[in-house]
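User: Structure please.
Assistant: Input sequence and predicted structure:
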Amino acid sequence: MIFFNNHIYEKVGKDVYHKQNMYCRHIIKGGKSMSKLNLDVMHDRRGTECVKWDFMNFVDSRVPKDAQPLWLSDMEFPIATNIQDALIHRIQQGFIGHSMPSNQYFEAVQGWYQRRFNWNIEKESIFYSPGTLPALGFAIRAFTKKGDGIIIQEPVFYPFAELIEGNDRKIINNQLINQNEQYSMNFDDLAEKVKNPHNTMMILCSPHNPVGRVWTTEEIRKVANLCRENNVLLFSDELHCDATRKNVIHHPTMTVTDYQNVITAVAPGKTFNVGGIPISQIIIRNEQLRKLWYHETRLKHYISFAPPLDMVLCETAYQTCETWVDEVMEYIEGNFDFLVQYLQEHLPLTKYKKPEGTFLAWIHLGAYGDSEKLFELMIKKHKVLIENGRVFGHGGTGYFRMTVACPRAFLKEGLDKIVAAVNDPQEMTN
């Protein structure tokens, strides 16, 4: 047994611990779980090669190994027991050979998006990809040429910019408008930038990471129409589509517009907390784009087979874990409510608005001093890691991004450390 952050854990493997009986087994009836999740239990994930816990120096070399991780969009909740059981069962068969997406896989994907979003996806439109970011890289190389401009909307998920520049394309920033923490698109600026014939692609992040906007049908339609009028390919990243707040509806881009030059990326990673599994579904309804996609992925990179465990995971998640998602999102909703109250009480000068989507908080602490010094205090002295907003591009200065997909006590522990850093009079220097 070990004692960690006020919890007792039992050793279950090499350097891996959990609290015994911390998670109820689900009884499945018609794809619905009959038990209630216990999401208040915290787990020590150190020693599992977990990026969030074991490789915090990926963010900054100064981060100590014992810092509390509230960065990265991993949840601190165990995956659904249905998924665990399905993977174990598949391994116990004794063979992990080559596999390909089956009809069951396609039907699972189709069923999920039909039930959740009333989105009818044709089987031939669905392509397996080893992750969304690799898929974006494939799309950049397949549908644009070196020197082309690709439009993004900063502050935005920073790998977008890295992939654009890494493939010798140009970043074209259609800066989001921030009015009292309510973000909107600058359509006048976008209209000018899509007119440039050298700007051939746009990446739409919906729901938007990190600012948390869930774009309305009107906003999505305006974007699609501008792209249509100027023959700009629209790549719609919809990874956080299931992580919306109560009474907020995500609208898949392909359900809003009939524009054919649209590629949509979805994946089980954020929804089911399986981000470590490199799998996503790329939806392409235009036949010509499908041919170009096939040429790039199959003929240039030999993306043909699909990992068998990934197939099992997807089929199980999409077919049987709907209640798990609903319960987790309900808990996260409570965490956001807790965060709002906590900031009002302890950091009243903070600029913050509960996001419409994602399980990420986008918090402006600029009123409390230099953000770089504050970040240094957080990681080096108070040992809590959240992400510095500047890495998300223009408009990110003074902001920090943190996940709230964790037990509430763990969230409070991290917030207490942030408050201590804000109130620390020490001036740290490099």
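The chain has two domains: 2-74+322-422, 87-320.
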